[in-house]
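hiii so um. not sure if this is the right channel but i have a protein structure encoded as tokens and i wanna go backwards to a sequence. like what aa goes where. can anyone help
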């Protein structure tokens, strides 16, 4: 007896649907836990490719195999030396045991919440156990600019670094990593992204930095004015010395010139005394008599001897 095509097709279609519902694929970045009515079934699956689940009603819970980022919320934490600061941290983690991760945390959202509690708690404990300088600096390296030390408190500037920021963050990571192991999570790194004073303290710190910079500016300005006065004084002394030396040399040259001129005049006029007397008398006229001068002299005065007619003389 021949079967109807419908009767043959129905089992085939049902088989295809069951196979399609039972098949699933995992990428290289995924791992999965199969659950039945919320309870895990078998071992976690981490191999990428095509897989099947039976019965097909089982649920595939996928988890990321890659390193994931964790970012904490900035927390206000007091340090050991009573400095109130905001600490902002971040970390990297991954799921290494998906079965335990599913049993304890279910999904990444709950994992992030648990990491917040654990890492923030360890961060608070570590920061509160050390002075501020330990979370800010790593070594006792001296500042290249000595004036920069005025911008931080004397206690921070003088107190040596015993632990340092690197060891502090490693301590936070190691303690937090030990706790998160029970959740099937590996914590590879925790770092402090930013440290800042709380607003109230920040205003005081900025005011202190401004006053310190003003003090440094006033000191530099005062030193500059003193140096300028010193340079001006040196300039005046050098100028007086130069003028004095120049005047001395000018006087020496002038004296030598006058002496030479006198010698030449004496040599020239010594040959003709009468001509010398005549020349000197002519030179005396303009220096003695001008438009506003009145002289009452006789015509036979010696002063006018060369103005009288030679015939009358």
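sure thing!! here u go:
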């Amino acid at each position: 007896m021949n079967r109807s095509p419908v009767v043959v097709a129905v089992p085939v279609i049902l088989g295809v649907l069951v196979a399609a519902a039972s098949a699933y694929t995992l990428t290289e970045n995924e791992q999965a836990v199969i659950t039945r009515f919320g309870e895990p079934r078998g071992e976690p699956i981490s191999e990428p490719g095509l897989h099947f689940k039976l019965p097909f009603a089982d649920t595939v819970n996928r988890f990321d195999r890659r390193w994931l980022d964790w970012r904490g919320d900035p927390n206000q934490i007091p340090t050991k030396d009573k400095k109130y600061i905001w600490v902002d941290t971040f970390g990297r983690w991954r799921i290494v045991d998906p079965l335990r991760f599913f049993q304890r945390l279910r999904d990444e959202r709950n994992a992030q919440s648990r990491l917040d509690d654990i890492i923030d708690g360890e961060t608070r404990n570590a920061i509160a156990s050390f002075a501020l300088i330990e979370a800010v600096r790593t070594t006792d390296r001296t500042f290249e600019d000595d004036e920069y030390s005025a911008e931080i408190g004397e206690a921070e500037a003088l107190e040596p670094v015993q632990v340092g920021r690197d060891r502090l963050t490693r301590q936070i990571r190691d303690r937090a990593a030990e706790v998160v192991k029970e959740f099937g999570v590996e914590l590879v790194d925790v770092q402090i992204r930013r440290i800042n004073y709380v607003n109230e303290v920040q205003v005081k710190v900025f005011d202190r930095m401004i006053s310190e910079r003003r003090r440094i500016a006033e000191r530099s300005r005062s030193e500059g004015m003193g140096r300028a006065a010193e340079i001006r004084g040196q300039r005046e002394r050098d100028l007086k010395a130069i003028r004095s030396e120049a005047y001395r040399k000018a006087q020496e040259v002038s004296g030598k010139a006058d002496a030479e001129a006198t010698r030449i005049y004496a040599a020239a006029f010594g040959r003709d005394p009468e001509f010398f007397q005549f020349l000197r008398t002519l030179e005396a006229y303009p220096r003695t008599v001008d438009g506003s001068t009145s002289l009452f002299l006789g015509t036979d005065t010696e002063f006018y001897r060369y103005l009288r007619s030679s015939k009358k003389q």
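oh and The radius of gyration is 53 Å.
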